[in-house]
Amino acid sequence: MADQATYLFCTRTSRDLAEKIANHYGQELGKINFQQFSDGEFEPVLDQSVRGGRVFLIGSTFPPADNLLELLLMIDAAKRASAKSITVVIPYFGLARQDRKDKPRAPIGAKLVANLLTAAGATRIMTIDLHADQIQGFFEIPVDHLYASTIFVDHIKSLNLDNLTIASPDMGGAKRAKNYAGYLSAEVVIAYKERKKANVVEEMFLIGDVKDRNVILIDDMIDTAGTLCKAAEILMKNGAKSVRAMATHAVLSGKAYENIENSQISEVIVTDTIPVKSELSSKIKVLSCAALFADVMKMVHEHKSISDKFII
């Protein structure tokens, strides 16, 4: 029922984004009391009744693992407080890169997280740009998988770039780049990379022509920014007019900010699924995904279709 009471709560590290979501949703965030023990253990307690209501718990699960644990404890608290439904809004779904067993004796971390969320009491999951679409299948509860294309496409159009080319920094993102290129009537190129270990690009080759083109690299996340910076270097060497990068999740670990600042990328556009220290690089621009989440949360609450929120 659409007139069912709703309650919004958030984890501590996702408060900035959650406040924006709550503002767009038109409702204040609920209060949580956090008891912190001297050894680091913590206990989140919902400071209001949620009995029979729809609870939205907002929290990205980037490292440290305490962020995931905090969210799990909040789900358990809402379940034990007799919430009728618990929608867990996870702007950045951590461990999503562990979506398959690609070597002997390796865990499938994304599946483990899915199991934990469900066991804790989540009745619905809402997230954006999963590293692998098949992670939706790890859940036995509904998953609303949103796409940042609804945010990025408008920004790309506002740039009014001529000779636009969409690029993928690796083979895995080829489909995403092709979809963007098709929607924007642009050309598409792919940077083929070879790795010997995580976060280290050994070699990279360009598939396609970028001479005198304005190129936008599209990816789901930026970690150390090594791949993006290497791709930008290859693109410029092959005659690109300019190179920009767009990615949903700004993980930005290690020397990422330094790498971006010293790269040939003119601008890096990301969303706020993870808090960004944009002051560390003049090239980083942050677009908020708050309005998108708030709109979809309202649609879910009112049992409306969310199909019109999908552009690509």
Automatic annotation (TrEMBL):
Reactions this protein catalyses: D-ribose 5-phosphate + ATP = 5-phospho-alpha-D-ribose 1-diphosphate + AMP + H(+)
Protein name: ribose-phosphate diphosphokinase
Keyword ATP-binding part of the UniProt annotation: yes
A Pfam family: Pribosyl_synth
UniProt keywords, alphabetically: ATP-binding, Kinase, Magnesium, Metal-binding, Nucleotide biosynthesis, Nucleotide-binding, Transferase
InterPro entries to which the protein is assigned, alphabetical: PRib_PP_synth_CS (IPR000842), Pribosyltran_N (IPR029099), PRTase-like (IPR029057), PRTase_dom (IPR000836), Rib-P_diPkinase (IPR005946)
Chain's gene name: prs
EC primary class: transferase
Classification via PANTHER family: RIBOSE-PHOSPHATE DIPHOSPHOKINASE FAMILY MEMBER, RIBOSE-PHOSPHATE PYROPHOSPHOKINASE 1, CHLOROPLASTIC
Origin superkingdom: Bacteria
EC number: 2.7.6.1
SUPFAM superfamilies documented for this protein: PRTase-like (SSF53271)
A GO CC term assigned to this protein in UniProt: cytoplasm
Metal-binding among keywords: yes
SMART domains the record matches: Pribosyltran_N
Membrane-spanning intervals of the chain: none
GO molecular function: ATP binding; kinase activity; magnesium ion binding; ribose phosphate diphosphokinase activity
Domain Ribose-phosphate pyrophosphokinase N-terminal per the UniProt entry, residue ranges: 8-121
Species the sequence originates in: Cloacibacterium normanense
GO BP term, pick one: ribonucleoside monophosphate biosynthetic process
